[in-house]
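Bench notes, bay 3.
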Amino acid sequence: MTDSRYLKRTVVKHEIESKYLNETRRLRIYLPPGYNELLSYPVVYCQDGEEFFNFGRIATHANRLILDEDIEPFIIVGVEVNTKVRTQEYAPFGSRFEAYVSCFTEEIIPYVENNYPVRRSPEERILAGDSLGGSVSLHIALKRKDLFSKIITLSGAFYIPSQEIIAQETNLGSLSLYMVVGLQEREYQTDTGIYDFVELNRKTKELLEKRGAKVVYFEKVGQHLWGFWQQELPAALSYFLGSSGS
């Protein structure tokens, strides 16, 4: 049974106007137990923000890690997305990809940092995403190594265009990734085709490591679903926010 302390969480909703996307973008921001604006906190930025909170139960996981596992308190920013244009924003070949990356790095990050006491070094910002959300998290880090160095990818959708972009890099020694993929994801149907996610992730891991990135990688029994990813989130968060990831 879930401890009632884990369910007492503070999640604040915000809206920002994006000049890059020409629309309003919603954010969900989790504040840890004992939140104090005079302190400073590491921050986790999640793609598919609504799903990370609703299906990934990330706020409940965070409360448990902070209250029971001695993890340093941290803030979570969930960036919501319209599923109808998700591929266009998250895939590097998408028509809204560049605008989304600009919105994320030049509007969302400054907004959060102006309103919350989050730390501002690449080592204290973590990007997290599932499927194409994992892919766009890596692409944002590749484009802005000055902002990000830590990435969590849950069954990342690292299609050939993403692999080609990684292959063009020469030095990724500043990046650290936590990657997990489900062994039952070998024939997964997406809106752009059927893919073997295990092979996509194996190849991407190899490309990253050859360029100096530090990669912690797992293949586990699981499908391309939140039921799998939800179980994997605590270990991923602990890796970067516990003593091993600092």
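Next record in the batch:
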Amino acid sequence: MDESIYYKRTMIKEQLSSAYLPEPRSLRIVLPPGYNELLSYPVIYCQDGEDFINFGRIATQLTRLVLDEGLEPAILVAVDVDKKVRTDEYAPEGSRFEAYCRFFAEELIPHIESRYPARPQPDARILAGDSLGGTVSLHLALDYPQLSTRVISLSGALLTSTQERLQREERDLAWLDLYMLIGLDEEQVETTRGVFDFLQANRDTLKLLHTRNAKVTYVEKPGKHLWGFWQTELPYALHHVLG
């Protein structure tokens, strides 16, 4: 097959105003191959939207999987973030975390479902993120289980705040379906907040999730806290949520 077909896509760019955030949010909506408004589709909501498109190549990868491997078509919604306030929005202790989560749940998802044939079931709304994007995706599912039950966490920053949340507030997570990827070379990850052992943090979080009956597909393999690692592993995550 001519590989150029993998790069053909319909991408719609939008600006979504918010009552919770001080500025509009840029969105990139990518429609799947064979898109038909008479059908309905699962939706993958990506934190760090620009990075998922440019570095994760998620649109190209998903197109290839749909065309070559028969994966179920899905709409992609890539949600951009200003890197200057990323930690404020994505970290549970961040100053804009609550506002961002409310924007996502109360404004973004309804907006998408009012304009596109998106399935409204919680297992058809997939939240995906890398590092702190994985953190906010998991917390969104925990806070709004009626909206989403499926999460992709690529080297999630599942640190003290997340673990305390699980210990303090969660008892039964049998409804949660989580794909967790972590690299064996992520024992000393430098962030704007310090150096953290993401590998141990993910292992500790996995134990907490298992004791609360969450359905977790956990992948631990050689890899660094970089898009080069996540891009390679992304097809497996997509197979998990759409296969």
